[in-house]
Amino acid sequence: MSEYTVSKIFPFDKKAHLKIDTLLHEEGIRRDAHLDCTCAIYDGDRVIATGSTFGNTLRCLAVSKDYQGEGLMNLIVSHLVDYQFEQGNTHLFLYTKTCTARFFADLGFNEIARIDGLVSFMENKKTGFQDYLKQLERPQKNPDKVAAIVMNANPFTLGHQYLVEKACAENDLLHLFIVSEDKSLIPFDVRKKLVLKGTAHLDNIIYHDSGYYIISQATFPSYFQKDEVVVIESQARLDLAIFTKIAQELGITRRYVGEEPTSLVTNLYNQVMIDKLPEQGIDCIVVKRKEFSESQPISASTTRQAIKDGNWNLLDQLLPQTTLDYFQSLEAKPTIERIRQSEQVIHY
């Protein structure tokens, strides 16, 4: 094992990346679109082991079948963990095939959830997820009807407000989870503020930051499957496995989602929820989208495009006054500029 060293692979080293792609392909993995650091182990001119990071996740981990059992994965993981710690990331996550989860357990990672035969979601803190569950705010009394919404709100629109109001009217309590990962065009602190202001007139909501455990499209690995539909369905199934544990902790028996007529990703996600949540005793309530004109549903994508285009007449029809006030303030200038500079603001 001492004869091997781990090398950092720079983004411009096309030759090395080609060799890494070859190894990943041999091991049934394809390169993930989201990577910010990659390393490799060579034997001569051949890449025999590799691993990468994205944010505080480890991914694209592979060892050539000709070299398995020589401790190379241990070297790769140790290198990446050291790198993460240097970046200030001490709470780490990884996704791996379920058949290799036991190996990573020996390296100090603990399984949070899995899809049998496909993927395991793991973290390096023994009680990380349990600690997250314990700190979730709860009501003083246990109400009968308890619902949940998971919302990115990029930004918070009249459609989001309508969905929240409906859930609040039909239930005694709503747990509203705001996706806290900062990968959206509108920063988390802004999104959270707009959600709070846009729902301030409702008195039966408990708000939660999603933390690391409600999986986003940005962090979920697509490299275990070749088919995009399978990737989306796998993400949804793993996300729901985690959400089910949260729901059991909080007594949630309903999850509200907006109907999605245009987004492939969200529509597939909704379908998985419709199929899988009732198996866990949770109803999935799909709410028809609020429309701003005949057959024109309100969406965050339409809103971002209107912001990009400077179409304030349309924004008047899409946004509650609290969100409009923000975008018309000086505080919003950096956010508006970020949206205008983005090539793609419509999410499919």
From TrEMBL:
Q: What class of enzyme is it?
A: ligase
What is a single molecular function from GO for this protein?
A: [citrate (pro-3S)-lyase] ligase activity
Q: Which reaction equations make up its catalytic activity?
A: holo-[citrate lyase ACP] + acetate + ATP = acetyl-[citrate lyase ACP] + AMP + diphosphate
SMART domains with a match to the protein in the record: Citrate_ly_lig
The alphabetized UniProt keywords are: ATP-binding, Ligase, Nucleotide-binding
Q: What is its EC number?
A: 6.2.1.22
The record places domain N-acetyltransferase at 1-139
- Name residues in a coiled coil: none
- One Pfam entry for this protein is Citrate_ly_lig
The role this protein plays is: Acetylation of prosthetic group (2-(5''-phosphoribosyl)-3'-dephosphocoenzyme-A) of the gamma subunit of citrate lyase.
Extract the NCBIfam families matched here: cit_ly_ligase, cyt_tran_rel
* Protein name listed in UniProt: [Citrate [pro-3S]-lyase] ligase
Q: Which organism is it from?
A: Streptococcus caledonicus
What gene is it encoded by?
Answer: citC
